[in-house]
Amino acid sequence: MQNQSEMLSVPQHIAIIMDGNGRWAKQRGLPRNAGHRQGAKVFETICDYCQKIGVKYVTAYAFSTENWKRPQNEVDAIMDLLRSYLKEAAKQVKRNVCLRFLGDRTPLAPDVQALIEQAERESAANTGITVCIALNYGGRAEIVHSARALAEKAAKGQLDPARIDEGMLAENLYSGGIPDPDLMIRPSGEKRLSNFLLWQLAYAEFVFLDVLWPDFTPADLDEAIRQFQLRNRRFGGI
Ligand code: IPE
Ligand code: IPE
Ligand code: MG
């Protein structure tokens, strides 16, 4: 049973679909990439704020397996923003942030893959907030990835299929070892998951806000947390 203080506590893990960059730019007569640039700044501000208020994990959707359908120039611009972020990852490492990347990184440029590995390695021992960036991430692809890892062990005779349970499947997701999100926030007015954390969000509280991601402020995060705190999480109980 939850007591009052637990009910009003800050969520341990917040998942965010950073959406609305293109519409933000369009509203201003700017190229879509200007929206991504502003969105990347907001991402840093919100991560800093989450750390300040005691959130332990943030998972942000940065690029989906479906986003490759966009024009090459837009994909390149997003990857360049990621490069800039990773080149400054030392800043996060110093702030005790642990960085993780969720998704299939093999199709990414070799220099980006190397920067990701470096950021994860250098921040792995950090004990502050864990920031997970979902990149070339798809919820269905992630479940396939986990199922395949288990099937390979079973085929080698190292795992009895009858022993496969939810815990084992979860451990082999990209998010293995990270507790499920408590709160999922999607700004921009869209009310769908777009293939984000299909497994992990089974019992998360969803908050949809009309603000576009590049306009998202710590006050919007507070509002989402306020809505979260009013929810009664029953997890199937009474
Ligand atoms: C989110 O903003 C960023 C990515 C998907 C990479 P969008 O680019 O989807 O912005 P809208 O939805 O077109 O406004
Ligand atoms: C989801 O947003 C992916 C990210 C925010 C990275 P999209 O803009 O790609 O989602 P749809 O196309 O509106 O469903
Ligand atoms: Mg969008």
Q: What is the CATH first-level class name?
A: Alpha Beta
Largest sheet: 6 strands, parallel
Which structural category do the helix and sheet elements fall into? alpha/beta
CATH architecture: 3-Layer(aba) Sandwich
- Integer average pLDDT: 96
Task: Detail the poorly predicted runs.
Answer: 1-7
Count of structural domains: 1
Whole-angstrom Rg: 18 Å
The helix-strand sequence is HEHHEHHEHEHHEEH
The neighbouring-strand order within the major sheet is 3-4-2-1-5-6
- Reported by name, the CATH topology is Undecaprenyl pyrophosphate synthetase
CATH superfamily: Decaprenyl diphosphate synthase-like
Q: What is the rounded distance between the termini?
A: 10 Å
The distinct bound ligands, ions and cofactors come out as: 3-methylbut-3-enyl trihydrogen diphosphate, magnesium ion
What does this structure look like?
The protein contains 9 helices and 6 strands, in the order H-E-H-H-E-H-H-E-H-E-H-H-E-E-H. The protein is of the alpha/beta class. The chain has one domain (about 10-140, about 180-230): Decaprenyl diphosphate synthase-like (Undecaprenyl pyrophosphate synthetase). Helix 2 crosses helix 3 (about 30-55). The longest helix is centred in the N-terminal third of the chain and has 22 residues, at about 30-55. It is globular, with a radius of gyration of 18 Å. The protein starts with a helix and ends in an 8-residue tail after the last helix. The protein binds 3-methylbut-3-enyl trihydrogen diphosphate (2 copies) and magnesium ion (MG). One 3-methylbut-3-enyl trihydrogen diphosphate (IPE) binds next to helix 2.
